[in-house]
Write a structure and sequence with these properties.
By secondary structure, the protein is α/β, with parallel strands linked by helices. The protein has 2 domains: 158 residues, ATPase, nucleotide binding domain (Nucleotidyltransferase, domain 5), CATH 3.30.420.40; 174 residues, Nucleotidyltransferase, domain 5, CATH 3.30.420.40. It has 10 helices and 10 strands. The strands form 2 sheets. Strands 3-2-1-4-5 form a 5-stranded mixed sheet, with helices on both faces. A 5-stranded mixed sheet has the order 8-7-6-9-10, with helices on both faces. Helix 3 links the parallel strand 4 and strand 5. It is globular and about 65 Å long. Bound molecules: 5'-O-[(R)-(carboxyoxy)(hydroxy)phosphoryl]adenosine and zinc ion (ZN). 5'-O-[(R)-(carboxyoxy)(hydroxy)phosphoryl]adenosine (KG4) binds next to helix 5 and helix 6.
């Protein structure tokens, strides 16, 4: 059964409103996907300021709702279901879309459905025409999470490994800060690394000798901090080699992160019978990572799937899409506005 789903996302620093029409098996069409990024708002502080994020979401949600309806050429009476990100995320930020969505659903007398943000990321590659075969493996690589999961079926996720300290996106962001690059740092590091020599500095490969699929990025972060302190001591932007040293460090750091993720992907493929691997979350936009993991998949006779580049970051379309699989559980009765800043994907109710 096809439903027209209106979805809201506000878990961190992107406000998203999307409209998607589809069934419970992942077939459907995108009618609108509006995103407003708060990057400019937070950049001067070097990272996300939670209170500012929440206040700005409140301002943008109604504006984006109207532009989404206009793009889809629909009015609210055409909406069958309202979905919203309920977990995980910044507490105040999560509450904005949750209360907006629940109130709107109540007013329209239509069901509302809470969605797990990471399920949105994880399923976003399935919006493409070519889809992985279930069961498949998934690497969720974002600013707040780094996890490897076995997707036994849509809605059933088993955690195989996760970071023991920093998330991989966080490691990119913190390294970028040390290199005086603007927030958010992942894209900036990748850009600077294009001019750099990734062989110039040898950084330690995280957890390379430890078995299993857990990850760790804090040791690498410390190593890169010490390297920056040593190589850039007493130097500033006027020095001829200042940019080159920073580019070489960025390239060496990026290469080490990618190598570490490749090692985990190889192990995950070896430990599980699955052929297909899905990469999702903000870091899955990294071009070097995409290229290297595709080469590896080819070598091993495996397949790898990514979200479209514009869907790697936070967006409401992935929330609408995740909601489409769970649509029959949406309810008009439950009026409580509940959000869960921390919640494991593996604990989600099975579909
Ligand atoms: O999934 P996401 O948009 O938000 C969270 O749910 O956390 O991920 C954001 C993270 C940030 O840490 C950002 O620096 C990183 O994704 N990122 C990248 C790239 N683009 C974004 N990291 C590496 N390379 C990129 N091209
Ligand atoms: Zn995210």
């Amino acid at each position: 059964m096809n439903r027209t789903i209106l979805a809201f996302e506000s878990s961190c620093d992107e406000t998203g409103v999307a409209i998607y029409r589809g069934d419970e098996h992942g077939n459907g069409e995108v009618l609108a996907n509006e995103i407003f990024s708060q990057i400019d708002l937070h950049r001067v502080y070097g990272g996300v300021v939670p209170e500012l994020a929440a206040r700005d979401h409140l301002k943008r949600l109604p504006v984006l709702l109207y532009s989404a309806l206009e793009k889809a050429n629909l009015d609210l009476s055409a909406i069958d279901l309202i979905a919203y990100t309920a977990a995980p995320g910044l507490p105040g930020a999560l509450l904005t879309a949750a209360s907006f969505a629940r109130t709107l659903a109540y007013g329209r007398k239509i069901p509302a459905l809470p969605v797990h943000h990471l399920e949105g990321h994880l399923l976003s590659p399935l919006l493409a025409a070519e889809k992985p075969d279930v069961p498949f493996l998934a690497m969720l690589l974002s600013g707040g999470h780094s996890q490897i999961l076995a997707v036994e079926k849509i809605g059933s996720y088993r955690l195989l490994g996760q970071t023991l300290d920093d998330a991989v996106g966080e490691a990119f962001d913190k390294t970028a800060k040390l290199l005086d690059l603007p927030y958010p740092g992942g894209r900036e590091i990748a850009k600077l690394a294009e001019e750099g020599d990734s062989e110039r500095y040898c950084l330690p490969l995280p957890m390379s000798k430890k078995a299993g699929l857990d990850m760790s990025f804090s040791g690498l972060k410390t190593a890169v901090r010490l390297l920056i302190e040593r190589e850039l001591a007493g130097k500033n932007a006027e020095d001829a080699d200042y940019r080159q040293i920073r580019a070489d460090i960025a390239a060496s750091f990026q290469k080490t992160v990618v190598e570490s993720l490749l090692q985990k992907a190889r192990r995950a493929w070896k430990e599980c019978a699955c052929r297909d691997l899905v990469l999702a979350g903000g870091v899955s936009a990294n071009i070097l990572l995409r290229r290297k993991i595709e080469e590896e998949a080819k070598k091993l006779g495996k397949r790898v799937f990514f979200p479209a580049l514009e869907l790697c970051g936070d967006n409401a379309l992935m929330i609408a899409f995740a909601a489409s699989f769970r649509a029959r559980y949406a309810s008009c009765e439950n009026l409580a506005i509940k959000t869960y800043p921390r919640m494991d994907l593996a604990n989600l109710p099975k579909i």
